Amino acid sequence: MESASDQKEIVIVGGGIIGCTSAYFLTRHPAYDPSKHKITLLEASKIAGGASGKAGGLLALWAYPTNIVLLSYRLHAQLAKEHSGESRWGYRQIHCGQLAAKGRPNETKQTLDGKPSDGQSVSLNKRDGKALGKVIAAGLPKDLNWFAPESVQSYYQMGDPNTTAQVHPYQFTIAMADLAAQKGVKIILGSVTSIDTANGSGVKSVTYEDKATKASRTIPATDVIVSAGPWTQRVYPPAPISGMRAHSVTITPSKPISAYAIFTEIALPPDFGQKNTFLKSKRPHSKTVTPEIYARPNNEAYACGEGDHLVPLPKTTEDVETDLSRCQDIIDYVSSISDELRDGEVTVRQACYLPNVEAASGGPLIGQTGVKGLLLATGHTCWGIQNGPGTGKLISEFVFDGKAKSASIGSLDPRKVL
What we know:
By secondary structure, the chain is an alpha+beta fold. The protein has 10 helices and 19 strands.
């Protein structure tokens, strides 16, 4: 193991949450000395341009893998306390539950800008005694009052503020990058074309194409962390990482909604489907759909649907294709059980790719690769935001201590699948 006093040229590939938290914790490691240790973060398009800027931002002690969840969850709380995360990136503790509901025929009329059109139906549903009786029987908490009583079938609590929290992913990732830059990390926009090794003696440099000038540049490297999410295999071909496309929307509800993350199971009526939306779905609806809905601060709701593999992974995050019909499906589904979402304003329609590990052991992959100085930190699926701080902390230990110290992660060793 090299002494921490040695000169280090650390290169991080990927400016999503894993790359940014790795940069942050490298600069906070006790051995970090900016006069001896140079850290460069290379990002092909923009910081938080992929899933790290478009995810839901759910944090949970019941997430997976269990060997890093507790570490990362605690670090989230510490980071929020140290850097005003409540105001800076929307950190807060929340409730979480599973809601079974019966969808209603959806007649919301949306225009291209996402705003309800003139003549939109307005709910006159009051929470009278009969409606409240249905809600109480279903076990719905009193403050979870933004679902139509006639739709609610049952509710199961998955987590409470002691076990569940949230952040705004884009704001959190940007903050981690900014805080790392303040401590000396250099952020460069450029696509990595090769990781160069020195005849079996480990990494020696990284070559990239500058985004602005298109010029090819090479920078020296003693340590390289590949944290490129679904693009990891493009940078390091042996990595068994694939990408799954996921769509999501954000909605400004017609009135404020309480702080819950809801995993739904919605039974759709046989004739479900809007006739008056600007874009009809190009595919038939399933009988049961499972969108997730996260209430965020500042009266915003995030909703996401199921993933797909219809479109291959593009060159960069800027080239991701959004299927507006899939976004409309999500809007229709959540509108079928909530007047507040149905009558709200759709503000964002988007898509991203989630990184999956194509191996029986699953993921993520965190640690050494067998090539001296080359580390992997990737394959976090839908829990990248939750497990970002823990991963960043562990990567800083691999670089400066030669091994993971904060958690036992032998099961996540990349060498098991490379």
